[in-house]
Amino acid sequence: MLETLHRFVLAGIPIFGMHRGSVGFLMNPYRLEDLEERLAASQPVQLHPLEMIACQEDGSTERGIAFNEVSLLRETRQAAKLRITVDGVVRVAELMADGVLLATPVGSTAYNLSAHGPIIPLGAGVLALTPICAFRPRRWRGALLPHGAQVHIDALETDKRPVAAVADFTEVRDVTSVQIHESLDVAITVLFDADANLEERVLKEQFLS
After folding, report:
1. Which of 28, 69, 81, 191 has its CB 3.0 to 4.6 Å from that of 107, i.e. a possible disulfide?
2. Quick check: 136 and 39 in contact, CB under 8 A?
3. Cβ(8)–Cβ(15) under 8 Å?
4. Would you say the C-alpha torsion 131, 137, 141, 147 has a positive or negative sign?
5. Calpha distance 142→100 (Å, rounded)
6. What is the DSSP letter of 107?
7. In the chain, what are the domains?
8. Is the peptide bond before 49 cis (omega within 30 degrees of 0)?
9. Which 3-state string (H, E, C) describes 157-198?
10. Structure pTM?
């Protein structure tokens, strides 16, 4: 589904996904009968992706977009050492962890949830900044940021602690810094069955044991 969203993000075509695998939070049940009626009655949700600008050790720059999350991950056995700046203010001077991620409301139920980040209702207007197996500061559990926040993450001591950046499935190795923000200029419409809309699914996830 994510590959389809990326493929058609600039085409202006609404996407109605149907579940045929093992994981499919953005999917509708697979059923071909009455498909035209389902499409006509479906509820649209407009998604804005995160934009990632990653700078690499060799000075090159790579861009990517993410409908779920942008994550920074250690490349070796050594924990990553990261500095996190939000809107020009250093908020975490030194995070030692397996990594950190910034998730959209849609992505908050994916990798973010597995990393013990919060589930975010679609209309909340916030993003989840969540550490992955933090060693220091050990008690930092992350933060909720306004969806317009500009997040800058520097990778420290990259000579012995190399870091990769991943936007959905776009991976950039050996990064020195990453800038992330929500791209309001890019949008795609995803369609959901009226009786199982995305907002209800996100809400239901908060009550599952």
Report:
1. 69
2. no
3. yes
4. negative
5. 9
6. G
7. 2-47+187-205 (no CATH), 50-182 (2.60.200.30)
8. no
9. CCCCCCEEEEECCEEECCEEEEEEEECCCCCEEEEECHHHCH
10. 0.91
In which residue are the tokens 């996830």 written? 205
Q: Residue 185's pLDDT band (boundaries 50, 70, 90)?
A: very high
| Other C-beta atoms lying within 10 Å of the C-beta of residue 160 | 8
The length of the chain, given as a count of residues: 209
Q: Which of 162, 175, 151 is nearest to 56 (CA)?
A: 175
- What is the distance between the alpha carbons of residues 57 and 37, in angstroms, rounded to a whole number? 52
Percentage of residues of the chain with pLDDT beyond 70:
100
In the block, residue with structure tokens 């800058």: 152
Query: For residues 14 and 7, what is the distance between their CA atoms, to the nearest angstrom?
Result: 12
The pLDDT assigned to 4 comes to 93
Round to whole Å and give the CA distance between 130 and 142: 4
Q: What is the pLDDT of residues 50-63, one digit of tens each?
A: 999 999 999 999 99
